């Protein structure tokens, strides 16, 4: 029940997300205030579901009572996280934060003393996997003879980081450049054994990110993939299961896709037939620069494109034969935009008597400020699942959850699920599932939202759960 | 279990909603096809949650199975509804449909033979309650000496409609002009008795809509208020309870407010602090014309303004002291817009480290095409609740739900709730509560969305419900 | 001074533009009224600058007097145009109009008798130049042994059309599919002679559109290129000059680019520095389908991308070194959108003290309804220039304008100009230049917009021109 | 020809515009650089037409040559302006700049030493004319017994400011709160004499702003009204003429109206019929706060509402009978928005065959950063007109322009014109008129944009002017 001393190692530590995450935690930890044109600012954890969202735990009289998740479960305190990681650029974190152009200038100044001594470890860099335009940043890379040495080096980095900081555990999270998809081949990526052999043989289709995942798993450390590429090939999944290590992916769900999976719920639940979804994006940070390369964009497009398919498929009245709708994803690199990613979506739908409904969204997403708290949640929730054990029915021993931790789907654009588990993209269902697991852990009932205890006269019930169980309904 | 033969009487039958509802049902009933520039069109019930939305009823293997609500519960078939009503304008429904400028011209032509013999009954018209600009339409009004005679006339209309069409029951729904709020006074509106006395005394602050509500209740007929005004004053509520008649309100939730209550969920659940919501609307139909009058606009503004307050209040991390945010509602009458209401919203929020998130929506809402299926749902669901009886614990007799049917809140901008029942505006919670009541009636478990049966290895469960009950969790 | 009897031959007659142009002229000519949901409609020529825009011709007292262009110059009456053309699809114009899904259904019905006997001539079809997805439409194509026979066939078609309809003249306009750019080669496209040799030799890089241009010129007929491809290669230009025939191009400026060239004026004239222009488009008509092919899209992108460069270059305060700004063009084929093309632009600019200004446009462009009147204007204005002769200074003979008719730039996305003529994309300058030429022809002074005659007290002048000439100013 | 030493006195010096104007000039003058999140910033004069826009002065070969206005005419150098003024709040300019929340924090810090000793003079404050919510700011007000003493005090302030700073001249500009309209009455506001009597008699309908205008005029100082109220009543105009002093107004044209007057040109010139214009605004600065009061909003609404009427009226093809279109103006005070005013416009138009064109704009206007360079231009251009003298025809003496300086209309939402001068709101015409006057002063020809010298073969001309004059055209 006591939170362990936990470390975080970010792949791509010096990127926009990495520096924003690190700076944000330091600002909160040291309670740093700063000025911008709007006056004095105090740090917060807005955008984090563990720190800043609440869930209903019951009623006090007619008043519904809500608590934040971190009051329901004993999450690690973000201010206690120890942060480190790798980057292909050798800039210290203070310089990198300045390069990122995300935080207010006065906050940058105040964080600089804390961050200028933080320097990323040398990174695995297989340049074929990321855009050529990243090459100029790559001045901090491992020069091993083969990929197995890279695995060993990363494992050593993890062990040393753990030891140096006297940590109970570490979580690894990829927030580096989107890689192109690796071409998954039988005999190479299909089993843990083949994959390890491929690493030994320096196979060209083993990506940098897969190296980190393997090293993580072998160090018994949860690995989280915050980018869209297919790091977590079947061989990695098998390796994770064998080693009883959690893996989570893929791709932070922070902006356009997040709202899209909420709006698909909105339309389909309302009985409105979505006909086209056109999603334009442009951004000017290094992520955008990397994605301006076709192969890397493809990874992103795949990650973003199927996000509403299961929602459409759930409604056979609207989609009796097929869920094929017009769905376009466009991402453009527009340097002037900086980190203020713009997401523009147009949703067209058919309504009553074949009328048309059109909804257009212009969404100014501060890319890294939205991603950083999601990184935090992924780490804290994954860490928490390492401490959750269950026993079902007459099971003898306590067990942990399936190693493919699809319950974090709320935070992922393309939730990785195990083969025999339904894929859920609906934002509402994802949030509710997550809340209900934690409520169950805390001994709280799930809320069916019927509020029957207030609607069925004669005898008031204390608890909606009970109400439902006891009631008999005849229609 | 068998659906009764049901009639609908609309107040404001000849308005845009009334004609669209009527034409749409006729098109479906007689399977009328028509042409517009896009080719041949077939009728549908898109936008209706009873007809066109689905809910999960369980899993078949790893596949989730969904059914439409009308397959779960024995709702009245919309094609079997008998439609009638009142209107201050004496246009027959075919002419009125043409005036509405909502349906495709070719569909108007095809529906005309069905609708030209439909003529609204004379309406109660207290002109002080609606905009002066409606006066030119008012050529079909009752001319009774006092308000009690109006009540009696409406009651008679209901009885005759029922008899003429050999109906088991009737539902009354107000889809006429928004009235100004009546000034609720002690001694006048506070009790059923006082209210009836006020009617007898021809009290000026008893509104036309309240007359319809009273007549409905006295005829043992469910009354639904689709406009924002305060028809359902305490005296009406008491009268409904005394007569064991359902009342439902207020104001169809079809466009801007609907998405707003979904997006407030989206933000607040994500731990993002909403700071301002600016909602602009313009429309050119007769609703817009009526609302261009200040007093009527006020009713609408009240109805729209508090719709997210309970959602904000549920998060004390984001709103520790007060839920006061900047929230503006503007409605403008722009004749050229016609029925294609435009709703423009800007949502500003504070995110991590006080960054700003801005979301702008441009929403082209076909006003009446969105409202008509909501009218249908309100009628069908309210009718269904008349047939649901429950017994809780050791209760002896079966009872019906609280007469203030707040469970229809998904369909209402400002859900009317009884004094001791929490108000829920969250679109997600409203939908889930409604689904879960019907699933309970049908003997189906509510879904907690944890999908634990797929995530807890060793022993697969058939049913998420069971899983949850049997599991023991230790954190 | 009398308008000649004029025919129009459209390449791509059966496409959306061709059918809308033809149907629209017929509706106007025969004064056809029709119904849509908004009531009875009467035809108009909105969107045509010759028919529906006005220009100031002087003042009457303090009132400025404006006249439409067609009252200033003796343009051909659009209702008198005789229309014909070619298409790769053999659908008659009535069917094709129905396929286009542009006009109201009731108008389609009323136009059908007029258009069902109109059948396009067989078209030149070099399938390598347009998207593969167009192949299924290509059932009406010439099957000549070589390209010179195609030229001869088209020439014959022109002569026969002229004769059959007893026309004084014909204008040819390409409104067919966008072709890919042909690869301009020395020895092939560089001179008239080489080009004619290439045609004889059946050179693969001579495009279908170039064949039409050559045939036109040889028939002494003005040729207008309404698509972006490089039909008008140097050899065509030389041929036109030799034969004293006008050529006009490229690409109708109807929607996004039109407003972009107005807004660039707006910003740059205001001293505001444009930093990024991101232009998203999606459309669902056959144009969009063809452009979904990469090579064809490239033509469009080139046509759209440089449209503001000369405007930026005119301001060396804002752009002292280079006019390089972020400028992205995206076009997506989204079938559900139909002909209602959506253009979304985001303009970011630097303002005082490096603040940012952001302007976002959502533009619902009815693609063919905007293009058809531009087609009309191109034809009427080009025809008019055939009748304008001038004599400068001590020149002996009257001459006609340069054969590359860049004065029609207002109507063209990428105005074709002769080598030694400045390129003007500014919408304001284009309109004013055009107006001023016609005013000069009509003996009217150009307006300098100073209104000095009203602002310089003591002695009022009749004419701003005179005022300016006579005044002496000392600063 | 040499620029005089010029002072500026702002009414409302401590407001957002006043502090931004002052800070911006100081940053430029002292070449202050500063940091924000995007890196190091250098000051500029973007948004000023005198400093940062260019106009064509001729051609060099085929290249068009452009110069900025301040290279064409000897404007006062903005860095040489001496700034002072009045404010109802006694905050020094450094504090006031901080309160404004407009400039980057680091720039605020760097400007503070320059601005903390700048303190506004006591202001005339007739509280009935501005919103009640401004009262809390009013701690720096004159307490004279009557309005004539106020006039005298302001005159004295002007003289002392001039003397203390050894100035050749001063310009006065109102950038304070929008006042309500004064009720113009015969016998009070109609003549200079009556107005002066009303001031003496302390008439309640003489507004604070009119007091400043009178004092200005009596001190022989140009007065510019940057707000919408009717300061410049007929009596003020007469007084200005008598004293040969320029007056300019009304209301800075910086954002929504500016683009609206450009887009009306765009549509109407294209022959497209505007049908509705719906203009929503919200802002959170003190201007917004003041405008949240109904009477003050009315002034703004009047100023904004008629801005396109003359443009519509110029096209009798589109508007044969009346120019009445749906035109709505809404302004809301939304504090969270701060100075980043949002302007949202929807333009609907009828196009060919009664199709609809819809254009939606979302415009993030930095209110004060857009206004400050307009303030600068108004001052510099008005000052320049004081130095322009002309002589027409056989006039004996040089004269100055009409005292109602309507030529500055480009910078004004509601350009004040003299009774017998046409009102021009078209942004394009306003800019061109202004440019042409200055070009005439500089001995440059106006450009008719025909580029005929490049289009009429045989004999090239050096100058488009000459071309036009010499050519003979026969149509």
TrEMBL record, chains A, B, C, D:
<comment type="similarity">
    <text>Belongs to the myo-inositol 1-phosphate synthase family.</text>
</comment>
<keyword id="KW-0594">Phospholipid biosynthesis</keyword>
<dbReference type="GO" id="GO:0006021">
    <property type="term" value="P:inositol biosynthetic process"/>
</dbReference>
<dbReference type="InterPro" id="IPR013021">
    <property type="entry name" value="Myo-inos-1-P_Synthase_GAPDH"/>
</dbReference>
<protein>
    <recommendedName>
        <fullName>inositol-3-phosphate synthase</fullName>
        <ecNumber>5.5.1.4</ecNumber>
    </recommendedName>
</protein>
<dbReference type="GO" id="GO:0008654">
    <property type="term" value="P:phospholipid biosynthetic process"/>
</dbReference>
<keyword id="KW-1208">Phospholipid metabolism</keyword>
<keyword id="KW-0175">Coiled coil</keyword>
<feature type="domain" description="Myo-inositol-1-phosphate synthase GAPDH-like">
    <location>
        <begin position="255"/>
        <end position="368"/>
    </location>
</feature>
<dbReference type="Pfam" id="PF01658">
    <property type="entry name" value="Inos-1-P_synth"/>
</dbReference>
<keyword id="KW-0413">Isomerase</keyword>
<comment type="pathway">
    <text>Polyol metabolism; myo-inositol biosynthesis; myo-inositol from D-glucose 6-phosphate: step 1/2.</text>
</comment>
<keyword id="KW-0963">Cytoplasm</keyword>
<dbReference type="InterPro" id="IPR002587">
    <property type="entry name" value="Myo-inos-1-P_Synthase"/>
</dbReference>
<keyword id="KW-0443">Lipid metabolism</keyword>
<dbReference type="GO" id="GO:0005737">
    <property type="term" value="C:cytoplasm"/>
</dbReference>
<keyword id="KW-0520">NAD</keyword>
<dbReference type="InterPro" id="IPR036291">
    <property type="entry name" value="NAD(P)-bd_dom_sf"/>
</dbReference>
<dbReference type="Pfam" id="PF07994">
    <property type="entry name" value="NAD_binding_5"/>
</dbReference>
<feature type="coiled-coil region">
    <location>
        <begin position="131"/>
        <end position="164"/>
    </location>
</feature>
<keyword id="KW-0398">Inositol biosynthesis</keyword>
<dbReference type="GO" id="GO:0004512">
    <property type="term" value="F:inositol-3-phosphate synthase activity"/>
</dbReference>
<keyword id="KW-0444">Lipid biosynthesis</keyword>
């Amino acid at each position: 029940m006591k939170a362990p001393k936990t470390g975080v190692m970010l792949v791509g530590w010096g990127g926009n997300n990495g520096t924003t995450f690190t700076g944000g935690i330091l600002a909160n930890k040291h309670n740093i205030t700063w000025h911008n044109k709007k006056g004095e600012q105090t740090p917060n954890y807005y955008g984090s579901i563990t720190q800043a969202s609440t869930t209903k735990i019951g009623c006090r009289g007619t008043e519904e009572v809500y608590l934040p998740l971190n009051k329901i479960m004993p999450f690690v305190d973000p201010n206690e996280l120890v942060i480190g990681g790798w980057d292909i650029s050798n800039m210290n974190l203070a310089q990198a934060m300045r390069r990122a152009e995300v935080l207010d200038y006065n906050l940058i100044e105040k964080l600089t003393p804390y961050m200028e001594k933080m320097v990323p470890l040398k990174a695995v860099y297989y340049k074929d996997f990321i855009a050529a335009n990243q090459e100029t940043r790559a001045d901090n890379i491992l020069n091993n003879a083969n990929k197995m040495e890279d695995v060993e080096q990363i494992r050593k980095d993890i062990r040393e980081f753990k030891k140096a900081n006297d940590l109970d555990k570490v979580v690894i999270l990829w927030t580096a450049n989107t890689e192109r998809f690796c071409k998954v081949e039988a005999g190479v990526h299909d089993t843990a054994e083949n994959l390890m052999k491929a690493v030994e043989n320096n196979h060209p289709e083993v990506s940098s990110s897969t190296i980190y995942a393997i090293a993580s798993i072998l160090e018994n450390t949860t690995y989280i993939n915050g980018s869209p590429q297919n790091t977590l090939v079947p061989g990695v999944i098998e390796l994770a299961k064998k080693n009883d290590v959690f893996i989570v992916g893929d791709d932070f769900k922070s902006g356009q896709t997040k709202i899209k999976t909420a709006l698909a719920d909105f339309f389909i639940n309302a009985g409105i037939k979505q006909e086209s979804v056109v999603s334009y994006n442009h951004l000017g940070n290094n992520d955008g620069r990397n994605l301006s390369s076709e192969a890397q964009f493809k990874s992103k497009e795949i990650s973003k494109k199927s996000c509403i398919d299961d929602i459409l498929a759930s409604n056979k009245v609207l989609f009796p034969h097929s869920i094929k709708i017009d769905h376009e994803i466009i991402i453009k690199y527009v340097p002037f935009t900086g980190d203020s990613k713009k997401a523009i979506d147009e949703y067209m739908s058919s309504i009553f008597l074949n009328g048309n409904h059109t909804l257009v969204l212009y969404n100014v997403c501060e890319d890294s400020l939205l991603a950083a708290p999601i990184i935090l949640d992924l780490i804290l929730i994954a860490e928490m699942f390492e401490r959750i054990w269950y026993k079902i029915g007459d099971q003898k021993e306590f067990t942990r959850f399936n190693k493919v931790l699809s319950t974090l789907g709320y935070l992922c654009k393309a939730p990785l699920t195990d083969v025999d588990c339904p894929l859920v993209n609906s934002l509402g269902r994802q949030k509710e599932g997550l809340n209900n697991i934690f409520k169950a852990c805390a001994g709280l009932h799930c809320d069916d939202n019927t509020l029957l205890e207030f609607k069925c006269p004669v005898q008031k019930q204390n608890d909606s759960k009970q109400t439902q169980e006891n009631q008999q309904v005849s229609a």
